[in-house]
């Protein structure tokens, strides 16, 4: 894909740009070993298609590959079929990319259909990660046309989409970020763009003239590595000491704004300080940063409410918000209850835990109360 001369040696460590227990993403970052993240290569007709080539990559801890499939509306990588077969035989996750040349609405739709039709002809299903490689300098409206391209792919049933470009195009808002982003930025010690799902850090991996990337979310490799939590962020949630630490579940999770717009992804198993519970599009979400939220369903608290009581228990309320006498002896601190539904009572989120009983979100883990 993107070609740029590397001017500095890649540091062995980089800053991911997030803080496990901070209020946002931009300060006091933890350093994370780059080698902790799974790697994936992208290949085109320039690279080998033999099974031994991909087996050697897999032996070197490369867990995925993104194969160039199409370009414009007339080019198909002649090695694509063999590269897909060999990569699969090597146990690697296979994703596909399209080199975009579109200019205008119809052109973008036609390229999307060409990409989708070709992917289908190679027998890859709709769950395949489909990448829009947006970098060609001849494009007149890369932002809007990429949205058209991606909307057409979505209409064809492809929901796992990614936008790839160089860091500067993301800096200057030349490409959309409604899907996860994959940033090319060489010769530096970090992606240089907030909320990157993946970072292509070199175009000459091990002297092989091969682009290589780190996968921060598992999207390209089915692997995900969590940052080490701070010492006070325990994994258990049965005491108040960890009542406001959210642990992402077994899959990478969306981080969204208050309107539900995805702004990045959190690693499976990573932990985040919760500072309040809100409803976003009818779902409970934990506040974990400045206008950054994590859906409860994407955490280890999915489907349950854990009582966070300052004293021994909390008092449940009925649907009208009236306190239910004596219920605090039932809803004791640390006890967990299945959620029947989520609603609002007096304009505040509440969990229904029985036909008549509701627990206010302000009395649950994640409320921010100690």
TrEMBL record:
Classification lineage: Bacteria, Bacillati, Bacillota, Bacilli, Lactobacillales
UniProt entry keywords in alphabetical sequence: Glycosidase, Hydrolase, Signal
Name by which UniProt lists this protein: GH25 family lysozyme
Signal sequence coordinates: 1-28
Signal recorded as keyword: yes
Sequence similarity: Belongs to the glycosyl hydrolase 25 family.
InterPro entries attached to this UniProt entry: GH, Glyco_hydro_25, Glyco_hydro_fam25_subgr
Keyword presence, Signal: yes
